[in-house]
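Journal club prep — side note

Before the paper discussion, L.F. wants everyone to see what a predicted structure for a comparable chain looks like in token form. Sequence:
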Amino acid sequence: MTTHKTGILDEIKTPSLVSQEEWEAARQQLLVKEKELTHARDALAAKRRRMPWTEIKKAYSFDGPQGMVSLLDLFAGRRQLIVYRAFFEPGVFGWSEHACRGCSFGADQVAHVAHLNARDTTLVYASRAPQADIARLKARMGWEIPWYTITDSFDADFGVDEWHGHNAFIRDGERVFRTYFINGRGDEAMGTTWSYLDLTALGRQETWEDSPEGYPQTPPYKWWNWHDNYDAEALPDPKWVDMITDPQGAAARRRDEEAKGCTCS
């Protein structure tokens, strides 16, 4: 039986209590500020897409489930790569049963990577723990993020040897470039497909975005799919796209189809 706490009005100084109409008016007023924040976040992402790139000429090696791989290999053939340095290694609190509590909190937030992959972007985690320990941790926690073992100075070279952080990369053939880095409280917001794409050089790759000329872009909604259906269908069902892009028209067309199929006696 659930016990419900009571007495909050006596325990804390609450905002004023108002009618539903007054509450809605207050919400609409705050909504203006929320939209300003959304637009500011979009503008910041646009600036990220105009950040200069720096080429990575040093070779790095990682141990993975199938053996040793390079930084280029981590892309898995895709154009963009995001590497999160997670603390799971001897000396970290929780070892060897758990990774760092903060990094684990973040891993629990990670959206299904198929959606990132559909935008030609790969997300991986990297730690100094051996692969056997990483495999055991992932099984225990239910994580399916690709996770590699750092074997050299990658963490020190990219600002994540003593703390966590996300590094974003892009490749041109076999040339790899670092495009952005975020750490500290910036990591708090990471986890959604959108937060990862906004970190990258190419962004969400949708036509509404303010991106440099020539950047790949497609209409929003039309590339979205079920995470288990990207391989089966390059695009979602046209009826769904129609419903999202023109909801009123789609509803009218559906009613017309139902009316035509009616066999009323």
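L.F.'s comment for the group: The chain has ten helices and eight strands. Keep this in mind when we get to the figures.
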